[in-house]
């Protein structure tokens, strides 16, 4: 009997020890089966977000905290499902770049009910008080930099100006356009530029500060929906309709690199376009090659490495029970959200090597003709 009791005790001890080992080996950053920081990104179909995925993973290396990254693939319904999945995994902080700023409100409100701190990443979630922080590039400054570049490279008067914008569902598209309009409008009003493709913009050319409704009217005519094919089709439609007076040497406000390349290809293929200056944003590899080849004039470089570090640094500060530092606020239509802003850099042919190669953002071998 004693032997049986000893054997049972030994078996129980072995099982207990084995269970402890399994629990230890199942830990990732200190919590078995738990996720500390949940991250939801818009899509895997754009290089920017795939690069962000790896950067977020790298940012937590050496930390005791864990993270899981999910993609919404352009669907607000999938985005909400992703947030619910992460809530069920016990996250304490949610970092989310919304597919649609308004639609994402329901998802983050569900997180807030569970006392999860919500960080809106890169794009602002609007019309909800469930957003705690916003980590962003200064989006108004991005647009202003694009507009100023066009002004700095214009010659003479009456230069046709083609305006394009991002998706009306993205609050950043409004901020980019607002920034560009703030510097372009005086030059439209004084006749330096003449708007070639938006009757709404032409009708508002005497007004530098536009309301959201007024911005919506312009964006409704010139939106690309952040889609290269939409941008191509819209540019083709505009050039087909344009008179000879609206061709020749032209200026083009393109909102980001993906749309800029499509728009630039359309303008380059029109025999009545003598030259064009076209803006961009994001410093995508394909657009850097376009800049080197003089197919795209500039891009606004937003060093995503810094943005990721800011977002993850904020998350870790929160997990450590401290209050993160912020540098300003953004009105999301419901509340003013405390924000941390990251600076942006204008890159063109003159400084592309200094800003993108010498800073180790890209390798020289990634490009031809540097």
From TrEMBL:
This is Sugar uptake ABC transporter periplasmic solute-binding protein. It is found in: Cell envelope. It comes from the Bacteria. Keywords: Signal. Residues 1-22 form the signal peptide. Residues 37-323 form the Periplasmic binding protein domain. GO terms for molecular function: carbohydrate binding. SUPFAM superfamilies: Periplasmic binding protein-like I. It comes from Neobacillus vireti LMG 21834. CDD domains: PBP1_ChvE. Its main location: other. One of its GO terms (cellular component) is outer membrane-bounded periplasmic space.
């Amino acid at each position: 009997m004693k032997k049986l009791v000893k054997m049972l005790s030994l078996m129980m001890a072995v099982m207990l020890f084995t269970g402890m080992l399994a629990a230890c080996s199942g830990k990732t950053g200190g919590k078995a089966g738990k996720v500390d920081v949940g991250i939801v990104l818009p899509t895997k179909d754009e290089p920017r977000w795939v690069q962000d995925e790896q950067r977020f993973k790298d940012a937590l290396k050496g930390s005791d905290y864990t993270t899981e990254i999910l993609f919404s693939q352009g669907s607000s319904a999938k985005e909400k499902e992703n947030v619910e999945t992460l809530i069920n995994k016990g996250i304490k902080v949610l970092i989310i770049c919304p597919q649609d700023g308004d639609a994402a409100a329901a998802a983050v409100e569900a997180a807030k009910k569970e006392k999860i701190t919500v960080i809106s990443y890169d794009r602002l979630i609007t019309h909800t008080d469930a957003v705690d922080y916003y980590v962003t590039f200064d989006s108004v400054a991005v647009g202003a930099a694009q507009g100023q570049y066009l002004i700095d490279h214009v010659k003479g008067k009456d230069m046709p100006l083609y305006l394009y914008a991002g998706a009306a569902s993205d609050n950043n598209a409004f901020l980019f356009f607002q920034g560009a309009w703030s510097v372009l409008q005086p030059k439209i009003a004084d006749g330096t530029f003449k708007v070639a493709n938006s009757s709404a913009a032409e009708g508002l050319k005497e007004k530098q500060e536009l309301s959201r409704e007024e911005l919506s009217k312009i964006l409704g005519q010139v939106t690309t929906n952040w889609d290269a094919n939409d941008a191509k089709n819209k540019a083709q439609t505009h050039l087909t309709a344009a008179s000879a007076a609206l061709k020749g040497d032209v200026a083009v406000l393109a909102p980001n690199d993906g749309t800029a390349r499509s728009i630039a290809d359309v303008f380059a293929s029109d025999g009545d376009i003598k030259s064009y200056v076209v803006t961009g944003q994001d410093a995508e590899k394909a657009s850097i090659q376009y800049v080197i080849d003089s197919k795209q004039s500039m891009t606004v470089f937003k060093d995503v490495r810094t943005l990721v570090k800011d977002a993850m640094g904020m998350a870790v500060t929160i997990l450590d029970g401290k209050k993160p530092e912020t540098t300003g606020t953004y009105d999301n239509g419901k509340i003013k959200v405390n924000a941390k802003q990251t600076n942006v850099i204008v890159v063109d042919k003159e400084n592309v090597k200094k800003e993108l190669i010498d800073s180790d953002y890209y390798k020289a071998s990634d490009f031809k003709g540097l």
